[in-house]
């Protein structure tokens, strides 16, 4: 007897996350019988490659989800809020990483390597996948928390422009192209802004991103903390089941195309050594790769990590003044590990 394979729908198939997800499908377990691709009206009729076949992208409408078992939403929060309940009502498990549902205690927040049990249950429900900021650090935090119990996390993240989608990537390239032949630019206040004032495209960033960093990522949040910073704090607490964990995050936009980085200062209830921490990270089933030999200039950087799936950890240090603390530097591809991969892993858990 032939067993019917589940149907997967990908909404936002023509965006950077959707395209990354589709490129990863052939490397994943052979789970899906059909893959349906959906996007906004302007992408209707576009042909996209999925699992070795040319698939025509359909416009989002209720009828498109008939017979769908699992649906991945790689769309903005406003779209996810509207469509996730509609799709779930038709019986599909809906996986959303936009942040639209992470504040809802009835919606499980899932990282399959840490809390796979949260993905259990029948179809017709919504599951949340964390932000790229959270996924950048959560595997490392979970492994060390298991051994020594985290008390405090102070994180400074350095986030790639691809978080803002194609517009973010194109804006960085456009600004660099405008500035690259002027070797005097960036040496006096306001000159970068002046040189970029004639660019036709509207920037998704609050300041120039080429030759610059911007100490704000995300929406207005509460006016002092950005939405990305607040979301990371709540997501880490939820995933680790540590509602009293003290955490402060500063998110910085940097001129990197893809791959987020972070500097982490972690404090624990129990004393630990650097060697113990490295051993736990190396031996744990956590998708973490330790690359830490400063004397040979071996540490993770975005240009070396982009296009890969693990989280890379380096610069592991124990400050002499903080015997219960560690300093680490982590890198992970924000489109793969920070988005598409986690959603695919959730989808596979649900489908199987």
Give short descriptive properties of this protein.
about 350 residues; alpha/beta; Rossmann fold; Dihydrodipicolinate Reductase, domain 2; 2 domains; 6-stranded parallel sheet; 6-stranded mixed sheet; globular; Aspartate semialdehyde dehydrogenase; protein dimerization activity; NAD binding
Catalogue the unreliable spans. none
* Proportion of strand residues: 15-25%
Alpha-beta content class: alpha/beta
Order of helices and strands: EHEEEEEHEEHEHHHEEHEHEEH
- Name the CATH superfamily assignment of the largest domain: Dihydrodipicolinate Reductase, domain 2
Helicity level: 25-40%
Terminal residue distance? 18 Å
CATH class of the largest domain: Alpha Beta
GO molecular function, one term: NAD binding
InterPro entries: NAD(P)-bd_dom_sf, Semialdehyde_DH_NAD-bd, Semialdhyde_DH_dimer_dom
GO biological process, one term: amino acid biosynthetic process
Protein name: Aspartate semialdehyde dehydrogenase
């Amino acid at each position: 007897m032939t067993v019917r394979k589940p149907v997967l729908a990908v909404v936002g198939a023509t965006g950077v996350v959707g395209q990354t997800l589709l490129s990863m499908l052939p490397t994943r377990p052979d789970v899906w019988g059909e893959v349906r691709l959906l996007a906004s009206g302007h992408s209707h009729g576009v042909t996209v490659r999925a699992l070795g076949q040319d698939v025509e992208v359909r416009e989002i409408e209720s009828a498109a989800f008939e017979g769908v078992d699992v649906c991945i939403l790689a769309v903005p929060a406003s779209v996810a809020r509207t469509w996730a309940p509609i799709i779930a009502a038709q019986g599909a498990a809906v996986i959303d990483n936009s942040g639209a549902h992470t504040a809802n205690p009835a919606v499980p927040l899932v990282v399959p390597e840490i809390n796979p049990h949260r993905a259990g249950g029948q179809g017709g429900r919504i599951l949340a996948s964390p932000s790229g900021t959270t996924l950048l650090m959560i595997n490392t935090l979970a492994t060390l928390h298991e051994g020594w119990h985290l008390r405090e996390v102070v994180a400074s993240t350095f986030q790639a422009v691809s978080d803002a989608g194609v517009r973010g990537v194109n804006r960085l390239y456009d600004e660099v192209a405008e500035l690259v032949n002027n070797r005097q630019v960036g040496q006096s206040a306001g000159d970068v802004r002046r040189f970029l004032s004639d660019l036709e495209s509207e920037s998704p960033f609050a300041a120039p991103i080429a030759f610059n960093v911007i100490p704000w990522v995300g929406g207005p949040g509460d006016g002092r903390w950005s939405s990305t910073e607040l979301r990371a704090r709540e997501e880490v607490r939820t995933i680790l089941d540590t509602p009293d964990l003290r955490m402060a995050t500063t998110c910085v936009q940097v001129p990197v195309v893809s791959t987020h980085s972070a500097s982490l200062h972690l404090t624990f209830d129990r004393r630990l050594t650097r060697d113990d921490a490295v051993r736990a990270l190396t031996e744990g089933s956590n998708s973490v790769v330790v690359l830490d030999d400063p004397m040979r200039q071996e540490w993770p950087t975005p240009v070396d990590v982009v296009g890969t799936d693990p989280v890379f950890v380096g610069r592991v240090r124990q400050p002499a003044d903080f015997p219960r603390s560690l300093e680490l530097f982590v890198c992970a591809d924000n489109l793969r590990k920070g988005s598409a991969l986690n959603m695919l892993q959730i989808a596979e858990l649900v489908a199987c």
